[in-house]
Amino acid sequence: PTVAACAASGLTEFVGVCEFGNTQGLVIANLDQAIHEIMGFDKKYRSLGIIGARTGAGPQIMAADEAIKATNTEILKVELPRDTQGGAGHGSLIVFGAEDVSDARRAVEVTLDNLPKFFGDVYANDMGHLELQYTARASKCLTTVFGAPEGKAFGLILGAPAVIGMLMIDAAVKSADVDVLDYGSPAHGTSFSNEVFITVSGDSGAVRQAIIAGREVGKPLLAAWGQDCPSAHIPYI
Amino acid sequence: PTVAACAASGLTEFVGVCEFGNTQGLVIANLDQAIHEIMGFDKKYRSLGIIGARTGAGPQIMAADEAIKATNTEILKVELPRDTQGGAGHGSLIVFGAEDVSDARRAVEVTLDNLPKFFGDVYANDMGHLELQYTARASKCLTTVFGAPEGKAFGLILGAPAVIGMLMIDAAVKSADVDVLDYGSPAHGTSFSNEVFITVSGDSGAVRQAIIAGREVGKPLLAAWGQDCPSAHIPYI
Amino acid sequence: PTVAACAASGLTEFVGVCEFGNTQGLVIANLDQAIHEIMGFDKKYRSLGIIGARTGAGPQIMAADEAIKATNTEILKVELPRDTQGGAGHGSLIVFGAEDVSDARRAVEVTLDNLPKFFGDVYANDMGHLELQYTARASKCLTTVFGAPEGKAFGLILGAPAVIGMLMIDAAVKSADVDVLDYGSPAHGTSFSNEVFITVSGDSGAVRQAIIAGREVGKPLLAAWGQDCPSAHIPYI
Fold first, then answer.
1. SS3 assignment, position C120
2. Which H helix or E strand runs over B129?
3. CA dihedral angle for residue A105, residue A106, residue A110, residue A111, rounded to 10 degrees
4. d(CA B48, CA B224)
5. φ, ψ for residue A236 (rounded to 5)?
6. N or C end of chain C, less CB within 10 A?
7. How far is Cα B165 from Cα C55, in angstroms, rounded to an integer?
8. Which of B77, B101, B113 is CA-nearest to residue B28?
9. pLDDT digits over A1-17, tens only?
10. 3-state class of A23 per DSSP?
11. Is A11 in contact with B193 (Cβ distance < 8 A)?
């Protein structure tokens, strides 16, 4: 970003972009009342923090969950377009509400700062992707999106194309005593993406064990068409 | 289109293609009764004009609105696949009904003729696209699709990925006194596309002012990853 | 597939991949009870056969229908993501249930073996695709997905982008006396794909005639932007 970034940085609402997932963060100090009304946002949140991406929903949601822990903001909207720029999964739109613009801005900054970490256990090639996410303590973004029990360990085990996810989720739940919160498949809980996933909760060690079991079975399956599937960043689980 | 176009032009139903959006126009003189029935079309419209595209819905809808003004046809169907050939938005399928095949054909021709103009305020790069549309006088296609008041000025302000659209719509409504008709977001009023948009109505000057305000804030945001975002044709607003 | 295929083939659950549609087949001998429950599968089917693809739903469904005829299995799930790796159509996830793992494995093998045939009347270029499918005797996979009368001739006539499908289905029903079972369009019976299709049943000769009529009108339309549209394999209809 050179010439163009200069142009965007002239806007007070622009917070930044992240190369991971082609993510962008913005802030609106005083949302217009007409937009408050059509989108159904509580008017006490006069400031918005906004995160959006062409590629990736899980990493952005995980990073936003960290931002919710660190700031005085609420999650107003998490929507998942069918995107990934020709890939098998989702993009994302996440809206934080705050009474003060500095809180909204801080939430966006914390999300962008944490985002690279949560691409660490995304493994991708031309055939699809695996995504694993873990936190020892889920907060309100994960509660809103996945119904995760707040303050407990949470995990996401996801494979795309969906066929791969089917084996990953079975391997995950067989490997450890975890509670399955929900699942996603092309026609259930996704935006017709080519994914199967489960979300799990429970004892921290068990959640990690389930995630690792899913990951280890997913990697050779995603590589089975002949392409390796490297991590998008640095694995953290 | 050389060899292949010859083959298609041998079909009496083929009207033409347009390079903008990879759009194609067809006509069916006497639709089979079985298709009338399964698709629920009124049988008095024995002739159909059909427009379809891989990329773009707004431009085709705007051009079809011009066709409705100019011909004795009705809009029977407007459907928006999640497409754009790997991009963030929609494709389109628009069906005109007519009692006479010459009217159906004329509607398709007028649509194809007007289509390039309405790609004039589409700005795109690898990261996404902006789309702005304006007419001084909405007709029945815009009424059907967006609930636009007939005969009044109408505007569309759209940004993709959705994060960019959020700021564009706020800037638009802050800049002028317009009525917001509806909005679209990945999970509301779209086919899970990675877009946020509003449709607006009102005084002609105010509608234009809102559109221009949205456009000016959208351009630097779409360029913020480092790629410029040129118009797909010649800006008309 | 060299190094990577070795890795996958070390998994007892891995059955194979097929280059057509980037399809993969797996088997799970004893599905975990937690997955049985969240996905709502009858627990008597303790073994699953799983087929999934980034590209193509019709060919995989047709091949799975052959597998149902040849094995002691049931169809538990057929889901169609909006995929095709940037194209206009669907991917697929098909789950067979069996009481015995050898039946589940056999169903996956038969599906993979039959898959190339059913890509024979898929015609594609950068603009879209045509898909034609025919069987003299529909079985339970086609019954489940399309409501096809079991044991009768069945046909699928599909064009993408949707505009092309509109003319193909009209030409098909005009050419022969067939029963139209259902249709798909971007907003009806698809996952927002850019397709229009019908499914037909009836006398074997009539079904074939309808399919061929649809195919012949579709080819020049898909080529009308200037690219030829070759078969993905060897035409069989």
1. coil
2. strand B128-135
3. -30
4. 44
5. -120, -5
6. C
7. 30
8. B101
9. 444 556 787 899 999 99
10. strand
11. no
Residues B203, B80: Cα–Cα separation, whole Å: 28
Handedness of CA A34, A38, A41, A43 (dihedral sign): positive
Phi/psi at A66 (nearest 5 deg)?
-65, -40
Alpha-carbon distance C30 to nearest alpha carbon in chain A (angstroms): 9
Say which amino acid occupies B121: D
Length of chain A: 237
Structure-token pair, residue A117:
């970490």
> Among candidates B205, B70, B62, which has minimal Cα distance to B143?
B62
- For residue B197, pLDDT over 80 is answered with yes
d(CA A116, CA A20): 6
Q: Is the pLDDT of residue A237 over 50?
A: yes
Could you read off the pLDDT of C53-102 as tens digits, one per residue? 999 999 999 999 999 999 999 999 999 999 999 999 999 999 999 999 99
CA dihedral sign of residues A67, A68, A71, A75: positive
- Assess contact for B201 and B179: CB atoms under 8 A: yes
Q: Cα separation of C61 and C141, whole Å?
A: 7
pLDDT tens sequence across C125-153? 999 999 999 999 999 999 999 999 999 99
User: Considering only residues 188 to 217 of chain A, which have any Cβ-Cβ distance to chain B shorter than 8 Å?
Assistant: 191-192
* Cβ contact C4:A228 at 8 Å: yes
Taking CB atoms and an 8 Å cut-off, how many pairs form between chains A and B?
Answer: 139
Which uninterrupted H or E stretch holds C48? strand C47-53
pTM of this structure: 0.95
State whether C170 and B95 contact (CB < 8 Å).
Answer: no
User: Which DSSP category does C139 fall into?
Assistant: -
Q: Give the pair of three-digit tokens for residue A101.
A: 């613009």
> A58: burial class by Cβ within 10 Å (0-12, 13-18, 19+)?
buried
pLDDT digits (tens, 9 = 90+) for A136-172: 999 999 999 999 999 999 999 999 999 999 999 999 9
Q: What does DSSP assign to residue C35?
A: H
Identify all chain A residues contacting C24, using CB atoms and an 8 Å cutoff.
161, 163-164, 221, 224-225
Which amino acid belongs to residue C102? Answer: S
Q: What are the start-end ranges of the H helices in chain B?
A: 3-9, 33-39, 58-70, 101-118, 140-146, 162-175, 204-222
CB-based burial of residue B149 (10 Å sphere; 0-12 exposed, 13-18 middle, 19+ buried)?
A: middle
